[in-house]
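Sample intake sheet
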Amino acid sequence: MRSRYSAFVRGDVPYLLATWHSGKRPAELTLETGGKWLGLEIKHHRATGAETAEVEFVARFRVGGKAVRQHELSRFVREDGRWFYVDGDEL
């Protein structure tokens, strides 16, 4: 989760796509420009199976002078020792 947040901060689209599970990965990803990321708080994480987990987080950023708060429960799966983002629900 932290590495994906850092990729959003850097605008590293190739990394974001590479860490997205192949079954859910979008064909392309366009990030909003002009935003400033302000922080990431991991609220909770838990294993949901031998190779699956959930992470609840709040990411804060500012776009066009407006503060935005993204609160999500994300699901991850581990394949070949690497974690991949599957999907998430906004909270």
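Comment: The chain has a mean pLDDT of 96. The chain has one domain: 2-90.
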